[in-house]
């Protein structure tokens, strides 16, 4: 089961699915407010709803793969349902809370990078917010060079991003309480792009120190959007993990 990043949709896994097609079947779902899922109204807890959607599909032992926000959902599913998770692959999980505990200065550096995004939200300028967010968490493509339909899609959904804060920064799911991450005993892989921003390394390092059976890898030449820009490398890494699961 694959869980996409914020401002994307389940189709983002098409390249990885093609690489892995000979080895497994891939199920992907659209997060709230994304793809073909219903609009996100802001009622309830975004991360809880996203996790509940995944849990409904976790009807048998499965290999979980998540990217960015989706990777944090995959981690939560593994903590809460370990008997149904054979392996866990997290591609640049944006779970800032453990990095805040270990290296808060590196998270502050990230906060400085997303100042334009924050200002756009404060001003109600969703295009500026989306542009600022994409500059930090996109694939490096200049805003003007992104197709208008894709820009419009991101602009319409950028308002959803802050609703992940209670989990991503404050750990309202309590994944960091003593013993919680000890339940993630299945083989786990933390992937990051060679060209990604520094906080990604801080997050993956913090998680690797806490997970019982975690390994890390860096994809050469990739940034945050590795599942889309480097599907062959991502697929190969997932397949290698499955061989030891």
TrEMBL record:
<keyword id="KW-0378">Hydrolase</keyword>
<dbReference type="Pfam" id="PF12697">
    <property type="entry name" value="Abhydrolase_6"/>
</dbReference>
<feature type="domain" description="AB hydrolase-1">
    <location>
        <begin position="3"/>
        <end position="235"/>
    </location>
</feature>
<dbReference type="InterPro" id="IPR050266">
    <property type="entry name" value="AB_hydrolase_sf"/>
</dbReference>
<protein>
    <submittedName>
        <fullName>Alpha/beta hydrolase</fullName>
    </submittedName>
</protein>
<dbReference type="InterPro" id="IPR000073">
    <property type="entry name" value="AB_hydrolase_1"/>
</dbReference>
<dbReference type="InterPro" id="IPR029058">
    <property type="entry name" value="AB_hydrolase_fold"/>
</dbReference>
<dbReference type="GO" id="GO:0016787">
    <property type="term" value="F:hydrolase activity"/>
</dbReference>
């Amino acid at each position: 089961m694959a869980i996409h990043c914020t401002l994307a949709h389940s189709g983002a896994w098409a390249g990885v699915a093609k690489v892995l097609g000979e080895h497994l079947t891939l199920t992907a779902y659209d997060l709230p407010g994304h793809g073909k899922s219903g609009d996100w109204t802001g009622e309830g807890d975004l991360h809880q709803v996203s996790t509940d959607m995944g849990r409904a599909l976790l009807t048998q032992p499965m290999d979980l793969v998540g990217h960015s926000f989706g990777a944090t959902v995959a981690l939560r599913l593994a903590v809460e349902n370990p008997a149904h998770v054979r392996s866990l692959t997290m591609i640049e999980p944006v779970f800032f809370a453990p990095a805040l505990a270990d290296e808060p200065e590196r998270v502050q550096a990230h906060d400085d990078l997303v100042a334009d995004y924050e200002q756009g939200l404060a001003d109600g300028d969703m295009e500026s917010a989306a542009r600022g967010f994409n500059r930090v968490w996109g694939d490096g493509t200049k805003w003007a060079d992104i197709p208008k339909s894709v820009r419009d899609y991101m602009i319409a959904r950028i308002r959803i991003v802050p609703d992940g804060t209670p989990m991503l920064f404050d750990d309202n799911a309590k994944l960091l309480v003593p013993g919680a991450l000890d339940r993630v005993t299945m083989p786990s892989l933390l992937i990051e792009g060679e060209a990604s921003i520094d906080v990604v390394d801080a997050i993956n390092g913090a998680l690797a120190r806490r997970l019982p059976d975690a390994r890390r890898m860096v994809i050469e030449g990739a940034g945050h959007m590795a599942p889309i820009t480097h599907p062959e490398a991502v697929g190969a890494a997932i397949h290698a993990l499955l061989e030891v699961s």
